[in-house]
Design goal:
By secondary structure, the protein is mainly alpha-helical. 66% of the residues lie in helices and 6% in strands.
């Protein structure tokens, strides 16, 4: 069953960035990020979308050399 999951525009834009520029994404991560984009524009798998958003947060902190606060 597919549910509506509200994804902020900033998360959608960041997911699109990773999908377009990261060539070494695993199939699982790529699917999760796709669900983030789908969550912004329509129905998606909310569990996969949340995992994609968590991955983006961890990645952002790692790129900045910081430890995530969550």
């Amino acid at each position: 069953m597919v549910h509506r999951f509200d994804v902020p525009l900033a998360a959608r834009n960041r997911a699109l960035h990773y999908l377009a520029h990261e060539s070494r994404l695993s199939d699982d991560i790529r699917e999760q990020l796709t669900q983030v984009v789908h969550g912004y524009v329509g129905s998606c798998d909310p569990v996969a979308a949340r995992k994609g958003i968590e991955w983006m947060r961890r990645r952002r902190y790692r790129d900045l050399g910081q430890t995530p606060r969550f």
